[in-house]
Structures are given as C-alpha cells and as structure tokens.
Amino acid sequence: MTLIFIFINSAKRLYLNWDFKDTLYIEVINMMHLIDVTNSYRDLVQRQLAATNSQFVKVYSLGNTTVVYSETADKIEIVMENHKRPIRQDEVEFVIKRLIHEDRIYDITVDKSRKIISITCDR
C-alpha cells in the first residue's frame, strides 16, 4: 500500500491512498491546533481580569483566528476573532470540542461578517 499526502492548507491534509484492490480513495484529515499564546497577550489578560469578574483567562491561536477563553464563577465564555476572513464552521466546532469538554448547552452569537463569534455556556 502506498501512501501519498499533499498539503492543502495549514488546516487540512489530503491523503491519496491506494488500497489492495488498486483503487484510489481520498481522505481529508483536519490538522487544526490550538496554540497557547497567553504570554504574548499579557496586557489583554490583565485588563480582562481587572475589568470583569473573570477568574481565568487564556488566549489561543488557531492560525489567523484568535481565541480568548475566560471563566467566571458561573459561566465559560469563548470569543473567536479573525480580522482577515470569516470564521469557518469547522473552526467553531473544533474550538467547542477542545475547550468545552463535556456535552453542554451553549449559546453562539455571530456577527454579520462572521469575523467575531462568541460562545457562552454555564459552568
């Protein structure tokens, strides 16, 4: 079996696989990663902690999308922001899966241009 992969973009890889019957099938695998960049946003974190009732703030990078995760005593809020392009649905699903670990009920607020998305849920 021969495995050939081609990079489509930073978020996905395209695998072309030859199976034992000499047929070609294509498999697209998401390669998204949340990178903790909290130390680079020190001023933002300090302002968030001082101005709100947030007890915990983390900042992540998802390519060009910045993800701000904050917790209060009773809720979790995630804000996704991308100034260059609209945020894709698979990015929203990935962030929900990674940062809201349980099956919780959450509210999503999307701006008209899909460049800022807010997700809130009870803790």
From TrEMBL:
InterPro entries: DUF1827 (IPR014959), LMG18311-like_sf (IPR038226). Gene3D superfamilies: Streptococcus thermophilus LMG 18311 protein like. This is DUF1827 family protein.
